[in-house]
Amino acid sequence: MVTTVPLAETRLLNNISWRTFKAMLADMNKERNSRLAYDNGRVEIMTPLMPHENSNRLIEGLILVLSEEFGLEVKTTGSLTLTRDDLEKGGEPDSSYYIQHEFLVRDKESIDLNQYPPPELMLEVHYSKPKIEKLSLYASMGIPEFWRYNGIILRIYTLLDNKYSKVELSPTFVPVALRDIPRYNYI
Fold first, then answer.
1. How crowded is residue 181: how many other Cβ atoms within 10 Å of its Cβ?
2. Which secondary structure element, helix H or strand E, spans residue 26, and what is its range?
3. d(CA 82, CA 97)
4. For the segment 84-115, what is each residue's pLDDT rounded down to a tens digit?
5. How confident is the model over 150-165, as pLDDT tens digits?
6. Could you tell me where the beta strands, DSSP code E, fall in 21-161?
7. How far lies 103's CA from each of 55, 75, 106, 141, in Å?
8. Which residues contact 77 (CB under 8 A, 6 or more apart)?
9. pLDDT digits (tens, 9 = 90+) for 121-133
10. Of 117, 112, 67, 66, nearest to 85 (Cα)?
11. Domain 49-184, what fold?
């Protein structure tokens, strides 16, 4: 019998108000390792375990190497808490990156999406189906590029008409094709 080790622990809370979610964020320690997402009265609490974090860091390494190779300035904002009060939506991706607007947030300790654009590139690692669909959540927040890794396949999505479309070329790192990424030996 084969036993599988969970790669993340996920919980879902229902019927939570936006105000309660914001209070949860304010009350929780910023040094926590759990990540929260809020959409339509539901709160997902995900605690990544080591394999999840290893994949996140390896792909982040690839993004940073590509940025260096392309001569792009990048501000890594990690699992930056992104909230939009006007939409009553919020999330904390595994990793996020300012590239085109890096100069706007270069020296910022906190980033308010009412004052600054969202990160241009976001990464989510999912070894199991998320409780809140991140594609629609982050599309509604206007994140231009979304990378998703499920432990086997890396997919890249770009935002078009408020919906993500799967693509083979990252608009940030053209002309690197998705099919060529494994040759970089990061994933």
1. 19
2. helix 18-27
3. 12
4. 999 999 999 999 999 999 999 999 888 888 88
5. 888 889 999 999 999 9
6. 35-39, 42-48, 75-76, 82-84, 89-91, 95-98, 121-125, 145-149, 154-160
7. 28, 9, 5, 21
8. 95, 96, 97, 98, 105, 111, 119
9. 999 998 877 889 9
10. 112
11. tt1808, chain A (3.90.1570)
Query: Given the DSSP bridges, would you call strands 95-98 and 121-125 parallel, antiparallel or unpaired?
Result: antiparallel
Bigger pLDDT: 55 vs 184: 55
Contacts of residue 28, defined as CB under 8 A and 6 or more positions apart, other chains included, come to 34, 36
In this structure, the chain runs to a length of 187
Where exactly are the structural domains of the chain? 49-184
Given strand 8-13, what is the order of strands in its sheet?
A: 8-13, 42-48, 35-39, 89-91, 82-84
User: Over the stretch 43-91, which tens digit does the pLDDT of each residue have?
Assistant: 999 888 888 888 899 899 999 999 999 999 999 998 889 999 999 999 9
Does residue 175 have a cis peptide bond before it, meaning omega lies within 30 degrees of 0? yes
Give me the amino acid identity at 177: A
pTM of the model: 0.87
CA separation, residue 125 to residues 27, 46, 103, 153, 185 (Å): 26, 11, 27, 10, 17
